[in-house]
Amino acid sequence: MGRGTDQRTRYGRRRARAALAVLTAAVLGVGVAGCDAAGGDSPAPSGSPSKRTRTAPAWDTSPASVAAVGDSITRGFDACAVLSDCPEVSWATGSSAKVDSLAVRLLGKADAAEHSWNYAVTGARMADLTAQVTRAAQRGPQLVAVMAGANDACRSTTSAMTPVADFRAQFEQAMATLRKKLPKAQVYVSSIPDLKRLWSQGRTNPLGKQVWKLGLCPSMLGDADSLDSAATLRRNTVRDRVEDYNEVLREVCAKDRRCRTDDGAVHEFQFGTDQLSHWDWFHPSVDGQARLAEIAYRAVTAKSP
């Protein structure tokens, strides 16, 4: 109670001093630049910038064009046929009514066909993003959708995974390149899915495990049925690295006023067997792509980050 009384006393003294300062300024004829008596937005005196200058919002919830960059997920890999890209069902720019992609939701089907482009490449890692962004920038998109990083964790061994510091530097380089070429473009950055959950769902399917043996994400999917300590440690190492990558994506994006992430929504999404490819039981199915489109659309059209 004594501390609260002291705080109120100090607050009262500050208010008294502030009132005295205002009264003194009025007596001396000193005006307050940029504000009228009602505290509005009256023009500042000539040569003095107003402190209440209004600027356009940094984020536009209805961009008129979309370019996508990233990896196999954005290419719709294994969603339509085994070991094949299927960009028409891409969550970002696909034309399929079953997916209702981000571009279609934002632009409408007709405009999406003319004003959305997919520069993602199956197998791409974060080191490849700068080149993709450079190609996408030639179209002058108002929104660039990014989903990259899974392949940095999906390596032959955990020691071959991209170091977090390198991942950060590569993403920063891609963002700097984008900003140089497209200073006003908006950027939506998807988080990386939880690869360990994908393993836990897909390992129950015999066909999926046969496809995994072809070399699909061996750091996570290798020896799929093994539950010994070494296999568990390996999978947990991959899981932790993905979480570190997602933190990098959040931190780098937060430094750019025209960048938004999904706030971890894709990583937290509970992919079930209906949302996984029925060829490899790891990549998103058509239904999974539709869920990714929903997440992206909510993030892009939210009134505030």
Which keywords apply here?
alpha/beta, 305 residues, five-stranded parallel beta sheet, globular, 45% helix, disordered N terminus, 5 strands, 7% strand
Structure description:
This protein is α/β, with parallel strands linked by helices and 305 residues long. The protein is 45% helix and 7% strand. It contains twelve helices and five strands. A five-stranded parallel β-sheet has the order 2-1-3-4-5, sandwiched between helices. Helix 4 packs parallel to helix 6 (164-181) and helix 6 runs parallel beside helix 10. It is globular, with a radius of gyration of 26 Å.
Give a short summary of the structure.
The chain is globular and about 55 Å long. The protein is built from 12 helices and 5 strands. It is an alpha/beta fold.
Could you name the ranges where pLDDT drops below 50 across 5 or more consecutive residues?
1-54
Lateral arrangement of strands in the main beta sheet: 2-1-3-4-5
Estimated helix fraction? 40-55%
**Binned strand content:** 5-15%
Can you lay out the helices and strands and say which pair or pack?
Elements lengths: L1 H27 L37 E5 L31 H6 L1 H7 E3 L10 H9 L5 E5 L2 H4 L10 H18 L4 E4 L5 H8 L3 H7 L5 H4 L7 H26 L4 E3 L3 H4 L17 H16 L4
Parallel strand pairs: 1-2, 1-3, 3-4, 4-5
Helix pairs in contact: 4-6, 6-10
